[in-house]
Specification:
alpha+beta, Jelly Rolls, four-stranded antiparallel β-sheet, globular
Amino acid sequence: MKQLSLIEKAFFLKNISIFQELDLDFLLAISDKVHQDIYDQEEVVFAEGQIGHTMYLIAQGEVALYKEKKQIRQIEKQGFFGDASLFNEKARKHTAVCTKDSLLLLISRSELMSIISECPNVAISLLQHYTESL
């Protein structure tokens, strides 16, 4: 599985709901802060109870979220997960497992705070995402 170039990451971010309103110059700056990791099918991304410091964006593949070994959600390409732990600094409430070989983009808490300080619209988009999911 091929990793994305800087410009490919920027165009990918443009399709993620929390980044859609941003211009390409700012997305390029964010892309420079985003790391990539490849996961195999059935590989655990994180487990319930772990402390979370990273959110994940699905560039390729799919991820299932489990709560007490029961699948509660399937997330596909251009979806994201793991963001709640970035703000409350509590243990993960789910286990995330790749259901296909996957390329995930990772944003750490410190990188997200830097992004939000440069562009508060990202925080507003995250809040909108949370209110829709409630």
